[in-house]
Amino acid sequence: MSKKDIRWEQRFSNYRKALAKMEEVVSSKKLSDLSDLEKEGLIQRFEYTYELAWKTLQDLFKHKGYQDILGPTPVLGQALSDGYITDATNWKRLKKSRELTSHTYDSKTAAEIAEGIYSHYFKLLLDLAHKLSEEQTGSQQSIF
Q: Which helix or strand (DSSP H or E) is residue 14 part of?
């Protein structure tokens, strides 16, 4: 099977691109300098980056033979067990913030989520990308 046939690696490529879009905002401006429109864009980027994060993990677990781990809660639990994520408390907050973006939109909630992105969530998502890069490199090395 070639590298391009591995679903989790395809999804991981998209995850890295989404994370880079988040980084454009987080690394270029302080939170206090963002306009309301920029905060809304940041939150949108957060939403799709989070979705790609857990779906990449789900695909990785399927690739590893875990067929019954489906959905964000079981996937994140397995990721914690397997060491792909380590900060359970802030991952729970991240997940809760994502759920709030689907069901509620008000300026106070948006401000809290944007603060979470700057203070914790972006780093958590970046750390996951590093772990997945290590996994990908390890997979490639084991083929040879």
A: helix 7-26
| Domains identified in the chain and CATH numbers | 3-143 (1.20.120.330)
Torsions phi, psi for 105 (to 5 deg): -140, 115
Six token digits for residue 7: 């679903």
* Percent above pLDDT 90 for the chain: 81
Task: Name the percent of the chain in helix, strand, coil, to the closest 5.
Answer: 80, 0, 20
Q: What average pLDDT does this structure show over 44-64?
A: 97
Mean pLDDT of 105-118: 90
Q: Output DSSP code: residue 54.
A: H
- Whether residue 82 contacts residue 132, with contact meaning beta carbons closer than 8 Å, is answered with no
Nearest one of 132, 126, 127 to 26, comparing CA atoms:
126
Calpha distance 125→97 (Å, rounded): 14
Residue 38: both structure tokens together: 């920029």
pTM listed for this prediction: 0.89
- The burial of 144, by beta-carbon neighbours within 10 Å (0-12 exposed, 13-18 middle, 19 or more buried), is given as exposed
Tokens of 106: 């008000």
Q: How many helices (H) and strands (E) does the chain have?
A: 6, 0
